[in-house]
Amino acid sequence: MGMFGAGLAVAVLWTCLFYANDWLFSNLSVSKVIHWIFLPAAIRMLAVMALGWVGAIGLFVGALLTNDMVLHSSWEDAIAIAALSAVGPLAAVRFCTQWLGLEEDLAGLRPTQLIIVAVAGAICNVVPHNIYFFFSGHSPDILSGMLPMLVGDLLGTLVVLYLASLALKLLTLKRLTSRS
Q: Bridge-partner residues for 29, per DSSP?
């Protein structure tokens, strides 16, 4: 697929999950930028774990395409928020690889380590975004959006991972029944 194709795939997947999230869970949003369930959060860590900087660039492009429409604000805001969406998972993966002594691609993760990586990814997204939202005037304070955004990132990640797991099980079951 190549690096360009992989980055483009991440951007498209981010954008599709963003719009699916808006369609499915718009009634569970705290604001235009904070949701109690945020499906694209799962893509952040997966893209960076699988593709490194290429995944981060795909996240940046996907977030850039969706941010401006969400905030109805300046391009500067859209670029800053897209950058936070790309840099947060890079920082989380770097932290987790060093702290947990894992490979750069996080291969061989155990379930408890996966939970730690998901939480680290959510924290590295939530804290900088809420600080930015406060200082750019999109939020009345730094703290009010942190809990719903943290829950939204974690629930969104769990939903996507559960659906991916279910799809893999169904695919495996279909292959087993077609062989018999």
A: 35
85 in Cβ contact with 63 (< 8 Å): yes
Q: Give the whole-angstrom CA distance, residue 122 versus residue 40.
A: 11
CA nearest neighbour of 69 among 30, 29, 20, 33: 33
4-27: pLDDT as tens digits:
899 999 999 999 999 999 899 988
What was the pLDDT predicted at 167? 80
Strand blocks (E) in the chain: none
What tokens does 128 get? 């900088």
Angle between helices 111-135 and 75-100 (to 10 degrees): 150
Question: Going from the N-terminus, what domains does the chain have, and what CATH number goes with each?
Answer: 2-179 (1.10.1760)
Contact between residue 88 and residue 44 where contact means Cβ atoms under 8 Å apart? yes
Write the burial class of residue 167 (CB in 10 Å: 0-12 exposed, 13-18 middle, 19+ buried): exposed
Tokens 């593709």 sit at which residue?
51
Residue 33 in contact with residue 69, Cβ under 8 Å?
no
- 39 Cβ neighbours under 8 A, 6+ residues apart: 17, 18, 20, 21, 24, 25, 156, 159, 160
Q: Number of C-alpha atoms within 13 angstroms, CB side, residue 111?
A: 2
Average pLDDT, rounded, for the chain = 86
Q: How far apart are CA 91 and CA 175, in angstroms?
A: 39
More confident residue, 147 or 175: 147
